[in-house]
Design a protein that fits this description.
Immunoglobulin-like; mainly beta; nine-stranded antiparallel beta sheet
Length: 315
């Protein structure tokens, strides 16, 4: 049963891409459909009822992740945590990485409220999805609610924040102190040195990015609309991908005349039309079926390569 409350927002088309010369990650904002996790494991609120509460994903013990060019072999010290206020945290021996989807105090509304997660794929190619469902922002207005998910791709090192239905009174009214905190950062675990930060500030429709290496975190003035997806994409190759593969990824054939395009390296690929709209996306694939796309020129975007143009001719 879908317990989401009706979305009361109008979703505007959103395509942005930002790159920072000294950052390990680049930022991309796009849109897509939001789907509630099916078959997810629910986490008890009794374990997550304070800001310091957390839930460790023990299922990932002994698996290796690579973020910010640093290897994390998950164990009792190098841990993968889900935290209650729409964020996940990775701890190394003396450093940490945090992904904030809407970092603010979030509270349960009713029986439909939950925090849950789902681990897809095989070791080395995991996709971890964490969902915060029908929660309210404690500092928000009466009757507010929010839904969102954070996705972590093991092989590519990509982080994604997917925003679901939220109340209209969560679209504005917050300020840089009380609003949702959104972004990623890499730091010493005692918070004495920030190595990197990529933070989203401003309004949900006209946001800015802050890559200053400090602990000044300015919030957004509202929750992004349903369907918005924020992506944080490594500029360099990650676990299981050789540097040569990044520069040598090939697409064939081009033009595509038989309905399927192929890639020389498995990866996460999405297709954008000439109007900047995402029309197709697949993860961990070596081919895409484009037989249903209208004839035209499209851009293929991936963390494995620079954007490339491809011609599709189905008729």
């Amino acid at each position: 049963m879908n317990c989401f409350k009706p979305a009361l927002v109008v979703l505007c088309c959103l395509i942005h891409s930002f790159t920072f010369a000294q950052s390990s990650y680049r930022f991309d904002a796009t849109t897509g459909s939001y789907t509630e996790l099916a078959g997810a494991k629910r986490i008890s609120f009794a374990l997550m009822d304070t800001l310091s509460g957390f839930y460790r994903l023990k299922e990932l013990d002994a698996e290796v992740f690579k973020w910010y060019n640093t290897l994390f072999r998950i164990d009792t010290i190098k841990t993968f945590h889900i935290q209650p206020n729409a964020n996940v945290r990775f701890d190394n021996d003396s450093s940490l990485i945090i992904i904030d989807g809407a970092f603010t105090y979030l509270d349960s509304i009713d029986a439909s409220s939950s925090i849950s997660y789902k681990i897809e794929g095989n070791p080395g190619d995991r996709l971890i999805k964490v969902q915060w469902k029908n929660l309210k922002a404690r500092v928000g207005k009466v009757g507010n609610f929010v839904n969102l998910q954070i996705w972590v791709y093991q092989r590519s090192g990509v982080f994604e924040i997917h925003y679901g239905p939220s109340s209209t009174n969560n679209q504005s009214g917050f300020n840089i102190s009380t609003g949702p905190q959104v972004g990623i950062f890499y730091s010493l675990d005692n918070f004495t040195k920030c190595f990197e930060k990529l933070w989203v500030t401003g309004s949900p429709s006209t946001f800015n990015l802050d890559s200053t290496k400090n602990y000044s975190f300015k919030a957004m003035s509202g929750i992004p609309a349903e369907g918005v997806v924020f992506r944080f994409i490594p500029k360099f190759s990650t676990l299981g991908i050789r540097d040569t593969e990044v520069s040598e990824t090939q697409i064939y054939p081009n033009p595509v005349t038989a309905g399927v395009m192929y890639f020389s390296v498995p990866g996460d690929y999405h297709i954008v039309d000439s109007y900047g709209r995402e029309v197709l996306r697949e993860s961990g694939v070596t081919s895409l079926d484009v037989s249903k796309l209208p004839d035209g020129i499209y851009s293929i975007i991936s963390n494995l390569m620079h954007p490339l143009k491809v011609i599709v001719r189905n008729n």
